[in-house]
Amino acid sequence: MSTDRVVLVTGGNRGIGRAIAERFVAQGYKVAVTSRSDEGPAGTLTVRADVTDAAAVDAAFAEVENALGPIEILVANAGITKDTLLLRMTEDDFDSVVATNLGGTFRVVKRASKGMLRARWGRVILISSVVGLYGSAGQVNYAASKSALVGFARSLTRELGGRGITANVVAPGFIETDMTAELPADTQAEYKKNIPAGRFATADEVAGVVTWMASDDAAYISGAVIPVDGGLGMGH
């Protein structure tokens, strides 16, 4: 299995994205990450990009291509939340989450697909969430943006599947990150009660699935939703 391929992880400076980037580095891939501020992990090339800005995305890709070569594996991970109940949700709360989580995915996948088509090889891995199909009160905007990635990956599979390119969705459940650490203790305990595994995942457990999806072992999987959620969303 070739592991010197070029990988780009959006939002690779913290949380799940950082763990994914670290795992690719450990396996010998050439790894770049996008970040709006912080640096990516050791061994990665960090490029500045706001995924809601097509020109910034294009510039970031050009920087990676010049330094490392064409991007062969794209992990679209950059995402935000602006949680609140529907009746309190503002237009901006909705539009900004969709613009980043779904629009950002559109921009980076469109840009990456050009090189993948030329190479007739590519892996597109979209980081969704158990919430996308399970639902979550107070997260209409986030859940809608994350469930949309399923239709995105399946349509992309139908468009590009004959060119050696796969497109899949990884749907993590609750992960030990800064985002979940902010939840009140009683809320965390309530979530854990509903998770058959009885615990949150580590970011590294998600990263292992993502690197496997990028490997030759997963060459015949496309349009799939791979849950990494301890059984929370099964059946969805």
List the helices and strands and how they pair.
Layout: E1 6-10, H1 15-26, E2 30-35, E3 44-48, H2 54-68, E4 73-76, H3 91-119, E5 122-127, H4 131-134, H5 140-160, E6 165-172, H6 178-181, H7 185-194, H8 203-214, E7 225-228
Keywords: Oxidoreductase
GO molecular function, one term: 3-oxoacyl-[acyl-carrier-protein] reductase (NADPH) activity
Pfam families: adh_short_C2 (PF13561)
Quick one: CATH class? Alpha Beta
Arrangement of strands in the largest sheet: 3-2-1-4-5-6-7
What is the beta-strand fraction? 15-25%
Q: What is the fold-level CATH name, i.e. the topology?
A: Rossmann fold
Radius of gyration: 17 Å
The rough form would be described as globular
Secondary-structure element sequence? EHEEHEHEHHEHHHE
Strands, total number: 7
Total discrete domains: 1
Corresponding CATH superfamily: NAD(P)-binding Rossmann-like Domain
- CATH-scheme architecture: 3-Layer(aba) Sandwich
**Amino- and carboxy-terminal Cα gap:** 32 Å
User: Structural class, judged by helices and strands?
Assistant: alpha/beta
Verbal overview:
It holds the Pfam family adh_short_C2. Keywords: Oxidoreductase. GO terms for molecular function: 3-oxoacyl-[acyl-carrier-protein] reductase (NADPH) activity. With 236 residues, this protein is an alpha/beta fold. It has one domain: NAD(P)-binding Rossmann-like Domain (Rossmann fold, 3-Layer(aba) Sandwich). The protein has eight helices and seven strands; from the N terminus they run βαββαβαβααβαααβ. It has helices at residues 15-26, 54-68, 91-119, 131-134, 140-160, 178-181, 185-194, 203-214, and strands at residues 6-10, 30-35, 44-48, 73-76, 122-127, 165-172, 225-228. The chain has a seven-stranded parallel β-sheet, sandwiched between helices. Helix 1 (15-26) links the parallel strand 1 and strand 2 (30-35). Helix 1 packs across helix 8, helix 2 runs parallel beside helix 3 (91-119) and helix 3 (91-119) packs parallel to helix 5 (140-160). The longest helix has 29 residues, at 91-119. It is globular, with a radius of gyration of 17 Å.
